[in-house]
Structure formats: structure tokens, C-alpha cells
Specification:
single chain; mainly alpha; 3 helices; 2 strands
């Protein structure tokens, strides 16, 4: 009976600690600062991704599209893109 009470108190304390930690958690900035890119004439998502990312350019294009809520690949000069 006494052990059950200790276990319940320990679980309640752990739950409260987890709740406080989840509310107070902040982003670590581990991915570095976000970069904003201003689209120039004749830029395409392919050329931007190729210049700023290593690896598979198609994956970089997808990441740029997701970060900027783009439905397609059309971009315009002067537009600002967030490069994740």
C-alpha cells in the first residue's frame, strides 16, 4: 500500500514536470539562421536550389516550396523566398 502511494506520487510529479517542460520549451536554433532570398530575373527554383543546397536538387526544391507555401514552381523577380 505504501509503495503504491509512492509510485503514484512519483508518476504525478513526473507528469507535472513533463507538462512544465513542454510549455517552457523553446527552439534551439540548431538549423541555423533562416535565409531570405530575393528572386532575380531568370531565376528558377532549380537554379536557386542548385546554388544554395548540396545533394539532390529536387529535394531542395521541395523544401523551398514547402517553406514558402508554393503550389507550383512559378516564381517572379522581386519575390522573397525563405530558404530553409
Amino acid at each position: 500500500m505504501f509503495a503504491k502511494s509512492i509510485i503514484l506520487k512519483t508518476l504525478a510529479l513526473a507528469a507535472i514536470a513533463l507538462l512544465v517542460w513542454s510549455v517552457a520549451a523553446k527552439p534551439s536554433g540548431a538549423h541555423g539562421p533562416r535565409v531570405t532570398y530575393r528572386v532575380k530575373a531568370y531565376d528558377t527554383l532549380w537554379t536557386i536550389a542548385n546554388a544554395h543546397y548540396g545533394g539532390d536538387v529536387r529535394n531542395a526544391i521541395w523544401q523551398i516550396q514547402q517553406a514558402n507555401h508554393l503550389n507550383g514552381t512559378t516564381i517572379s523577380p522581386g519575390e522573397r523566398l525563405l530558404l530553409p
